[in-house]
Amino acid sequence: DAGITQSPRHKVTETGTPVTLRCHQTENHRYMYWYRQDPGHGLRLIHYSYGVKDTDKGEVSDGYSVSRSKTEDFLLTLESATSSQTSVYFCATDPGLAVTDTQYFGPGTRLTVL
Amino acid sequence: TQLLEQSPQFLSIQEGENLTVYCNSSSVFSSLQWYRQEPGEGPVLLVTVVTGGEVKKLKRLTFQFGDARKDSSLHITAAQPGDTGLYLCAVTYNQGGKLIFGQGTELSVKP
């Protein structure tokens, strides 16, 4: 298993507050991803990174920003949380060698916005 | 817009029964992966298929990739309670594309 940790694992916050989720990997994988998972929607890509300081938007990027200052860390920030951002957030990594690479997922962060 | 649909969304069966889960795309895809996710955990890769018509087996699980590269199926023989979980298909539509996930099939196998 790829060493991927997410913190915090659970968070309850109020509408309008900023929230930052952290993903840490020990595999030296080039690509890192943030997904959200909601019932009936599977996993939807928020943002991804293909290297230090190299990031791009995914399918559902509005209201989210990311940063990657080190290979091992990928941060997801909700600048002003809204109730529609209540979800389970997963970080994933892959080596970036081929389109068929396995993506390795972290354990998830359950975020509730009241 | 590419659409990726899984069916059924929910499946509840008894131990020992067989089942098939389907993944269908509105467009041809270049590769497809099946993941399994247990409650409270992240998805874990089961298999990757890249060739039209390809069949792969993983113990009691059989994965088929349609000839037209627009569909795939996962067949489980003699399901066990340990097979319970969310099964997700994910595709890439071109060599540089990102993974697109289906909405998942939630399987419950009762003893």
Task: Compute the separation of the termini of chain A in Å.
Answer: 34 Å
Overall strand count of chain A: 11
Per DSSP, the total helix count of chain A is 0
Estimated helix fraction of chain A? under 10%
Order of helices and strands of chain B: EEEEEEEEEEE
Main sheet: strands, sense, barrel of chain A: 7 strands, mixed
Could you say which structural class the secondary elements and strand pairing of chain A correspond to? mainly beta
**Number of extended strands of chain B:** 11
| Quaternary organisation | heterodimer
Q: Mean of residue pLDDT of chain A? A: 93
Strand content of chain B: over 45%
Shape of chain B: globular
Main interface: chain pair and counts: A-B, 21 and 25 residues
The biggest sheet of chain B amounts to: 6 strands, mixed
Give the terminus-to-terminus CA distance of chain B.
Answer: 41 Å
Low-confidence stretches of chain B: none
Helix/strand order of chain A: EEEEEEEEEEE
What's the alpha carbon Rg of chain B, rounded to whole Å? 13 Å
Number of helices of chain B: 0
Q: Beta-strand percentage of chain A?
A: over 45%
